[in-house]
Amino acid sequence: MTESLRTPLLFALVAVLIIGTGIFQDWNVALLLLNYGLISAIMALGVNLQWGFAGLFNVGVMGFVALGGLAAVLISMPPVTEAWAEGGARTIGGLLIGAGAIVATIFAQRKFQGRLKLWGTIAVALIGFFLFRAVFDGGVAAVEAVNPAGTGYLGGLNFGGENYKEWGFMALVAWPVGGLIAAGAAWVIGKVALGLRSDYLAIATLGIAEIIIAIMKHEDWLARGVKNVNGLPRPVPYELELQESATFVERANALGFDAVYASNLFTKLLYTGYFAVVLLILLWLAQKALNSPWGRMMRAIRDNEVAAEAMGKDVTARHLQIFVLGSAICGVAGAMMTTLDGQLTPGTYQPLRFTFLIWVMVIVGGSGNNFGAILGGFLIWWLWVQVEPMGLALMNFITAGMPEGSALKEHLLDSAAHMRLFTMGVILLLVLRFSPRGLIPER
Amino acid sequence: MTDFLNALVALTNFVIVPGMAYGAQLALGALGVTLIYGILRFSNFAHGDTMAFGAMATIFITWTFQAWGISFGPLPTAILALPFAIMITALVLLGTDRVVYRFYRRQKSDPVILVIVSMGVMFIMNGIVRFMIGVGDIRFSDGERFIISARDFKAATGLKEGLAIKTTQGITIVTAIIVVAILFWFLNKTRTGKSMRAFSDNEDLALLSGINPERVVMVTWIIVGALATVAGTLYGLDKSFKPFVYLQLLLPIFAAAIVGGLGNPLGAIVGGFIIAFAEVTITYPLKKVLGYLLPESLEPDGLVQLLSTDYKFAVSFVILLIVLLVKPTGIFKGQSV
């Protein structure tokens, strides 16, 4: 099979898989799969930028995705005026003191000399920390005391007032903002960690992702923590509104659809449109970058850092640049996902699903090739979803001969859901062994 | 004086004893990571799930023993099951090496490829553990619950503060000491151990002097299997067994290994205790201890808890960062550059 045929054929396979899901299962399932596939493809694009272009080993994808989700809340939810009045200023003031304390500590570490360097720095850090806690804790308590069952957080920046849900475009605004927040975090992390060797960078990013999740789980004033934020505004009409609209029902019936079914499909299709536009824009940018002098420089750095440095390239600065860009893309995808879910649930962020699965997508699809990463995003996501019913069918087949109610049979049927992790591992290992450059290799 | 003793007992009860037990568990985990890094030269992301696998094997054997009516008196049955679980885990690791890792070793792949390969192994191990034992919380500790219970201690000493040492904590520390002693004896005194250290220090030189690399790798996997099983079982005995937790342990374990100096066994132990004590001290509310020590007028109002326990990851992480920035090879000189 020639190289030029390979890419369209593989993408046709993905199309067949998704359409097949629609025919054999349900079109709603197929569209949902497609939407999450689009989001996964965008995440894979971000990781591919870092790993495929620059060889940066970032296993903190989950953190950036979660920060994007946080942006969706902070932008598209309405502010809680009462909470702002009670403790908003104090909370923000505390945060500013905290930031000031960090700056002062870094400053002390740079300026103090001799024995003062260690103890002086520690003293500045401790004083800063206690000042921060003294101001910040009071503010947080005040904010969280305001209607803890309903809000108990500061809310976002949607100034639509009572009808904030009609300001659905705020959700669209949140997507690039998610990218910006993730980029900001990535800049700080990159400044500290990018000087390290690849394994250390991996451990550092792994840790930072866990810390970001811990913050989102436990800082209730920010986004309600594990109490979750529900009912985020969305950029598409609500199914119920569509079902009540006479014109929509009429058109749906004219096409031979039930109004409820049609409204579900219609909203999902709108999301598909939005996500596809974002993916195409990002793909276009990534392709432009890959084929520009900048992209060639990146690959030169990846292939031989020493040589690139000898040619006068600032390796650390370029690494920082691409680390920020890739993380920003993951942040955009995270914001999109939270909008699609309609809720932010920090408890559901797990490294296997949001970091390592994305890595499987990139490696299987083909690192260093944007089309490969996107293909991997769709293909692996389809498998991730479909392996569960397949596993259940397999277990049903295996256990068919066993007596009804036997403990082994029940255990096997219950455990079928865990087949997907196993399958992902096997796929990753098989690809690494027999096609280490992925399904669509780098050109 | 009694105030001082009370403070000391409170500190021992809430900080030192749990810190020792947790430190021992981390140290055993970090030893496994550091050995693989030293001999096979990659960071093994699957180590957390290897620990989960080892603990799972122990649990299944413990259940079998309990069903047969075998018990270990006041000690948990799991201790009896440990040797068998080690054998199973070591066999699984040897199988993984044969099927997965050996190919890349022969190809002389980049270490980072091996790290990605270990990600695949992590998925498979995690899947197997979840598949076999489920995701629920499992307590498999039996026998006596306490070596010293708080009530007995108070009655015996007449102090206001009680000191409780759980059997699992005692076992953790004793087992860890035994395992570490055997490991260091093996590495320093036996021929195989010496060849392992030589291989870790300089691979080419070791090969030239006739050391069989496949044998060194095989022994390493067996030792790693033993360490991971013991660490996983002890952690599961002390807290409870939950497959998901072991993935999260990966971070403090790596932090411990790196802080001590990757590839250096002694460093792994020291690193484990540093991380454990830092985590426990910083997330423990010190109000009680300070309340005894300080005069009443100075007694703190708040809990004097520096960080909430939710951020214990942040502690190991910050220590890791500081060490990496100040002394990139770790406290004891590791292999890394």
UniProtKB/TrEMBL annotation, chain A:
Q: Which UniProt keywords apply?
A: Cell membrane, Membrane, Transmembrane, Transmembrane helix
Q: Where are the transmembrane segments?
A: 7-24, 30-49, 56-75, 87-106, 118-136, 167-188, 200-216, 269-290, 320-340, 352-371, 378-398, 418-435
Domain of life (superkingdom)? Bacteria
Q: What is its main location?
A: membrane
| Name the record gives this protein | Amino acid/amide ABC transporter membrane protein 2, HAAT family
Q: Where in the cell is it found?
A: Cell membrane
Q: Is Cell inner membrane there in the keyword field?
A: no
UniProt GO cellular component terms: plasma membrane
The molecular function terms of the Gene Ontology recorded here are: branched-chain amino acid transmembrane transporter activity
Which PANTHER family does the record cross-reference, listed alphabetically? BRANCHED-CHAIN AMINO ACID TRANSPORT PERMEASE PROTEIN LIVM-RELATED, HIGH-AFFINITY BRANCHED-CHAIN AMINO ACID TRANSPORT SYSTEM PERMEASE
Cited InterPro entries: ABC_transp_permease (IPR001851), LivM-like (IPR043428)
Q: Does the keyword Cell membrane apply?
A: yes
Read off the CDD domains from this record: TM_PBP1_LivM_like
Membrane topology qualifier: Multi-pass membrane protein
TrEMBL record, chain B:
Membrane-spanning residues where? 20-40, 52-72, 78-100, 112-133, 169-187, 216-237, 306-326
Could you list this entry's UniProt keywords, alphabetically sorted: Amino-acid transport, Cell inner membrane, Cell membrane, Membrane, Transmembrane, Transmembrane helix, Transport
Membrane topology category: Multi-pass membrane protein
Q: Name one GO biological process term.
A: D-alanine transmembrane transport
Any Pfam family from its record, for instance, is BPD_transp_2
User: Which GO molecular-function terms appear in the entry?
Assistant: L-isoleucine transmembrane transporter activity; L-leucine transmembrane transporter activity; L-phenylalanine transmembrane transporter activity; L-valine transmembrane transporter activity
Span of the signal peptide: none
Q: Which domain of life is it from?
A: Bacteria
Tell me which InterPro entries the record gives.
Answer: ABC_transp_permease, BCAA_transport_permease
Q: Where in the cell is it found?
A: Cell membrane
One Gene Ontology cellular component term attached to this UniProt record is: plasma membrane
Instruction: Give the protein family.
Output: Belongs to the binding-protein-dependent transport system permease family. LivHM subfamily.
- Return the PANTHER family for the record: BRANCHED-CHAIN AMINO ACID TRANSPORT SYSTEM PERMEASE PROTEIN LIVH, HIGH-AFFINITY BRANCHED-CHAIN AMINO ACID TRANSPORT SYSTEM PERMEASE PROTEIN LIVH
**Under which name does UniProt file this protein?**
Amino acid/amide ABC transporter membrane protein 1, HAAT family
